Amino acid sequence: MRNRSKILIALGNEIKRGVASHQCKGDVPRMYVNYLRQRYNMDEWHHVSNVNSFICEKNNLILIKPVTSLEKNSGLVIKNILNYLNCEDLKNVCIILPDMYRSIGKFKYKNYTKIYEKLGPDFYNILNSNIINNVLNNNFLQLCIGVSNYPNEVKNAVVTTLQECLNDGELKKIFKTFQLADEYFNKKIMNSKVITTNYIHLKEKYPAMEPQKSFRRSTASRRYVLDVYRHMYK
After folding, report:
1. Long-range contacts of 132-135 (CB under 8 A, 24+ apart)
2. Packed helices 168-188 and 28-39: angle between N→C axes, nearest 10 degrees
3. Which pLDDT belongs to residue 207?
């Protein structure tokens, strides 16, 4: 593997051969890497039996979908994948998770993984502890994609929640989220210095700038300048 390759590992529900995906909450990370594969015209998925994962790549980007479910020793799964790819720099690794504490339509990149002691044996504490104990580092990137329909969420066991199917409205929000996250993908994963949005075209923006959701054409230039300074000095 080339040292500068970026590795995205999408954890989620178990991938069962011969069973069509029902687009459940636990499948959202796999749906996102499927979106990226189509968006950037990457190679077809192929199964690598050594790590029991589906992998596709193009140039310096590698997308990975482990077959096993994320609650089944994901730390060891990730460790085996990184060893297989000879990856030593975890700063080039992004682990994608379905976030049950974040609303559908929301996402967040985390520059490092933190264990929240106040939450005790929380599902994500256990998952992240398992990953950190296996890779012996917490300086990998995490992308958390919201799958909760809060405040209407019914409290169920984690496995049950991840198996809940998404309705058409939720799927529409999620695919819109994928499009918005594409800017941050270029910044966080590909280290691009130029970010464009659907709202202001043909502008070279300050990399940390967040997309504007609405603005008047007469104030577009002023808003652009103010946002640049806001991010530079915050």
Report:
1. 132/75, 133/75, 134/75, 134/76, 134/78, 134/79, 135/75, 135/78, 135/79, 135/82, 135/90
2. 60
3. 40
Q: Are 76 and 53 in contact (CB under 8 A)?
A: no
Question: What digits encode the pLDDT tens for the residues 28-54?
Answer: 999 999 999 999 999 999 999 999 999
Residue length, the chain? 234
Answer whether residue 185 shows pLDDT above 90: no
pLDDT at residue 152 in the model: 66
Provide the 10 A C-beta neighbour count for residue 38.
Answer: 9
Q: Is the peptide bond before 151 cis (omega within 30 degrees of 0)?
A: yes
pTM: 0.78
Q: Dihedral sign, CA of 178, 180, 182, 188?
A: negative
Let me know: does 92 contact 6? Beta carbons within 8 Å.
Answer: yes
**Residue 41 falls in which region: left (phi positive, over 0), alpha (psi -120 to 50) or beta:** left
Report whether CATH 3.30.43.10 matches the domain 6-188. no
In whole angstroms, give the CA distance from residue 201 to residue 212.
Answer: 12
Give residue limits of the domains in the chain.
Answer: 6-188, 193-234
For the CA atoms of 21, 183, 62, 77, the dihedral, rounded to the nearest 10 degrees, stands at: -60
d(CA 9, CA 128): 14
CA dist., res. 56 & res. 42, Å (int): 7
